[in-house]
Amino acid sequence: MEILGIDIGGSGIKGAPVDVDKGIMVAERHRIDTPQPSTPDAVGNVVAELARHFDWTGLIGCTFPAIIKNGVTLSAANVDQSWIGTQAEKLLRKKTGCPLILLNDADAAGMAEMEFGAGKGHKGVVIILTLGTGIGSAVFVNGALLANSELGHLEFDGREAEKWTSDKVRKDKDLSWKKWGERIDAYLKHVEFLLSPDLFILGGGVSKNFDKFSPYLHTQTMIVPAQLLNDAGIVGAALAARNIK
Ligand code: BGC
Question: Which atom of ligand 1 is nearest to the CA of 10?
Fold first, then answer.
């Protein structure tokens, strides 16, 4: 079965049809810059353009970098503030004319990793953290997702995690792998203290450089890099849409 997966981010909106039985993209992914300002209407038009690009009329799974409850976007950390309180799922269904489900981007990436990547077969508490512009999180307990966990906004030592240790901060402040790795280590230890996970999976584009910063990570909990890298959001979005009635 094929479902169109779309991943909305602060800088780009990407999509591709996904074979949800194999967890792989079946066509080259298409990317369009996120319009600025990234208002619901402007982003909705780009999502519709992506669907048209693939001549799509079937199911769509779509991610968004915010809390999504019952199809409504309830936060907007790295996108236009007008998303807060928007009936976003309804809006995107109208724009595309397709049955569509909307979910948090890290939750989608986590679903893909649990089913086809680094989390496959892992029971207990598994925490996936996506390190990008912000920090996204997905928490699984025996394979079941606790949606909208937002661990990137956790405060410790008077700092908000994503403003101190996201990949954007590493690039903006030109931090060495050691310096940034030590920050990630402090953050992971804090999450470990609060939730006693059995496995951490680190995702986001930077996970391809896992070997450069993993020497500085010293949690008791096992830490592995994500396997689906940048495709996890698209694949996970499509997996989530299997449940559309
Ligand atoms: C948002 C999350 C999102 C994460 C990664 C955070 O700023 O609050 O909802 O998952 O960024 O995009």
Answer: 12
**Tens digit of pLDDT for each residue in 187-229?**
999 999 999 999 999 999 899 999 999 999 999 999 999 999 8
Query: What's the CATH code of the domain at 215?
Result: 3.30.420.40
CA-CA distance, 34 to 38, in Å (whole number)? 6
CA distance 133 to 165: 10
Which helix (H) or strand (E) element contains residue 104? strand 100-104
pTM of the model: 0.97
Cα 156 to averaged position of ligand 1 atoms, centre (Å): 17
Cα 236 from Cα 52, distance rounded (Å): 21
Kindly state whether residue 110 falls inside one of the protein's structural domains.
Answer: no
Domain containing 82 equals 2-105+233-243
pLDDT digits (tens, 9 = 90+) for 64-110: 999 999 999 999 988 999 999 999 999 999 999 999 999 999 999 99
Taking the C-alpha atoms of residue 210 and residue 168, their distance in angstroms, rounded to an integer, is 16
Mean pLDDT taken over the chain: 96
Give yes or no for residue 243 having a pLDDT over 90.
no
Assess whether pLDDT exceeds 80 at residue 4: yes
Q: Name which of 24, 7, 204 is nearest 92 in CA terms.
A: 7
Residues 93 and 101 sit within 8 Å (Cβ to Cβ): no
* Total length of the chain: 245
Quick one: 176 and 238 in the same domain? Answer: no
> Quick one: which atom of ligand 1 is closest to the CA of 75?
8
Residue among 90, 63, 89 at smallest CA distance from 8:
63
